[in-house]
Amino acid sequence: MSAVQPRPASPGEDNPIVCRLTETLFEVTVSKQNRLNFFSDSVQRLNQNREEAEVTLRNLKTWSPELADSFRIRDPDTLINNPFRLICESDLGHVPFDSENVFRQFIAVSYCWRHDDNDWPGDGSVPSAPWPFSRTFVDAVLSERGVHGGAPEGDANFRREGIWIDQMCIRQSDEVEKQQSIAMMDIIYDRCRKLLILLEDVTFTPEEVSVLEKYNNPWPKTIDEAIWKPEKADVPHLASLCAKVENSRWWSRSWCWHEIEVNKPWSDLRHQYHNHNATFVVKLASSVGNGSAYKLRYMTLQNARHASMSSANYIHGPDFLRKTIRWTIGDNKTSPYQDPPHRGAGTERSSLLGRFFVTSYTDCSIASDIVSISINLCGLALYFVGHFRNHDRVFFVMATLALACGEKRPLTWMDNDYTNDYTLLTLDERGGHGNSWLSRPTGGLDTGLPKFTVGGVRGLHRVSSHHIELDLLFFEAPVEKITDDQVKATYEIFPDNPIKSRKVEFQNQGFNPHMDDSEKDDKFCDSFRRKVLAGACNIGLAGIRRFWAVLEREVVEPSFNNARFVPFAGDDALRPAAKKMVDRLSTSDTCSIPALQDRNSDEEIMLSFLTFLTDPRALYMITPCPGIVRCNEGEGAILGHPALRFLSDYHDQSGYRLAIPTDLVDSPSNVPRVWILQPLEEGEKAKRLDAHGDNNGVSSCNDIGVSDSTGARWRLVGKCLLLGEPSLVLSETDGNMKSRFLALRKRQWVQA
């Protein structure tokens, strides 16, 4: 799609332009002043975040100029000058403007487009031209104008309330207008008085509606009145109607999800039940005729779903995640609406990729639209003008965009050829696995990714789908393997065989979803736990202090100490083992140990560490520990079990090197930060480039920043965790670019 140029304001835009569609239906292109009244505040908020957009675009232009050409800054003047039309229905023979010839407010409609074959929704209904949906839903939309109280009838004065419907209000043949409208779609749905959601393929039974209205109380006077407590016989009806909504076509569509998300249904404004709460419109079954429309508020649907999920009868089917992921929009931890109003370099903001991953669970016929949707959901002052239908490319575009903004998480992902999940968006444009340095997250799409700092990625130089050029900190010392004798020594601390998992206590005593096969899991994980324990003994007391500080900050506090679980605390039953371990390490630890400041005693730290080791929630981090890597003369860090790209890569690991991207040095330890690399021979590198047809204009080996050496080019074999390391920062100002244990090498070429 061609680049979008700002559209100049029309000389006649001081007045609205009215076009009659039928005797009672009008299309109104509102005046520029009317657009300013509607959108100036929202557009100005985008302008306040222009620095964030400029940082992102500047990085994209440096790393991948071709990709950068697909992005533009969302310019306020461009958005305000874009035509904005509303539909008005009036039996007066004209548009009932007020004295200023403006619309004061409008309602927006979210619905699924019909195709020419009219196969969907399959009930024999046809659109009521010029409306894009059937007459039952047209009447429901019109009846919502002016509904601002408990009375079902609208105020007659609200006939002038406009209606925005994308298919009717955007010139579908005008590519420039369409692209600019997409760029401001989030603003339109944010500024409407109310969002109406039409589910033409959903029909409620009278019994379901009766149960719904039995418990729905729009005006509760107490918290107790607000909580739905359905009778057992009523729960199946609530579960049934919720399932119908979640099985609708609308629920699965990316653009539809975008429309309710940017409407901010969890906000204080949208909780005004009659005035501003999003409203679903479905059909009500009838024994006579085609039935009528039935409306329910978003808050009502939320309450019904919660009441039905809380019962034992709620069925978690195979599509449970795909259908329920939409409800994460109310999570304050990941919502972009908690971000600072002014964002620029150094500002902390919510994850871009978390929003992208939620969108990835929905369907979108044009893959590139997912990029536009994700940008809008994140509040970036950018818009996307690329156009492609390859869903594989979406993953690369969004990962690179996130890196350019400062989100480092794509550098930590590592998949392999035996844990493929083909339900996820992948980067595999040539039909074969392993063509890219960029991997999918091994554990699946994560919608709860943490916040990041804008402009925080500084060690990248070039990025393409098949290679990346970046600064790496290499570990020069060989890996020290955990020996059988070191593992055997752990039986002095934990004589039980296997080490038994502790019981996790829940705040809700009646809720305990943890595994019934704990004994089986303990046997399987015993060797993993003992190797980690042996590794901890190997790095000494100082290393364990660092190790536990990281675990407490990055794992225990965010994941264990939440509303579901009883707060994590050391298990006193393990105190004898903690004392024994402290005594042993105190006699063997000869390195200089810094004084503790405002921290627990070594015994308490050890008790907490051993308790963590036996916690079943920690098993994802308790992987087989292959050894210790030394970071300086007296201190080392524990390496997690490597996740290698191919099974064959495990056979001979003698030629591998370990390095950590400089951008990941200060990143959390609970994600794979260490890259496992294999030197690329020149012949192999040339062969790979020829196969991919992609050199992306990258300079020759002599220009990469390392002397004329094949060591500057690497194959990415895998990644692993690094736990409990001391400071890895090397000073560049005094020339200390290399030590006996660490070496900083810039502009290293890495590919699959």
TrEMBL record:
The keyword Signal does not apply. Residues 106-259 form the Heterokaryon incompatibility domain. Pfam families: HET. It comes from the Eukaryota. Residues 36-63 form a coiled coil. InterPro entries: HET, HetReg/Transcr_Mod. Keywords: Coiled coil. This is Heterokaryon incompatibility domain-containing protein. It comes from Neoarthrinium moseri.
